[in-house]
Amino acid sequence: MKRLLSIVLSVALLSTLLLGITGCGDKGGKNVEGSTKDLLQKIYDGVDKSVTLPFVENIVLSENMGANGGIGIEYYLGTKGIPFKEGIASEAAIGGAYSVCLIRLDKGADVAKVKNDIKEKVNPAKWICYTADTVIVDSIGDLVILIMTNEKSAPGLGKALHDSFKKLA
Predict the structure, then answer these.
(1) Are 143 and 39 in contact (CB under 8 A)?
(2) Which of 69, 113, 124, 144 has its CA 20 to 30 A from that of 101?
(3) Could you tell me the strand order of the sheet in which 56-60 lies?
(4) Chain centroid to CA 9: how far?
(5) pLDDT averaged per 10 residues in sequence order, the chain, 169 residues
């Protein structure tokens, strides 16, 4: 009886650990419908009204951006070669450490690898005079979001954006 109980508890513990490791914010395989532009607007609309959003400029993301000497995709996501079919970046138009990038991955893309690559390679000090102290990378199905903010200049903003993103699930 003790052995059976030990096996059941071991399986339960292992399942919990595996779920915790592989989950890491991934809300399962169910995809959220809509364009990244529309979903970004839903995220903004869902932010608690007590949190101040900065004035932003939205930029359509593509893998070949910057090919003619402009800002490349690695400025936004930290790396090239991410298999995505659609994306949008929302950057502070007037100073400040603020960036939200939302991408929809290609079918069959390794979501965990993409999130890890972004988290490891993105530059939270990419702005000339500002540095983000909050960097959040999360996903729902084939959607991956990168949120970079500065808590000193915008308290609670990163968490509010992340909470609103999670409501899309």
Answers:
(1) yes
(2) 69
(3) 56-60, 84-92, 99-105, 143-149, 134-140
(4) 34
(5) 37 34 47 96 95 94 86 95 97 92 97 98 94 97 97 93 96
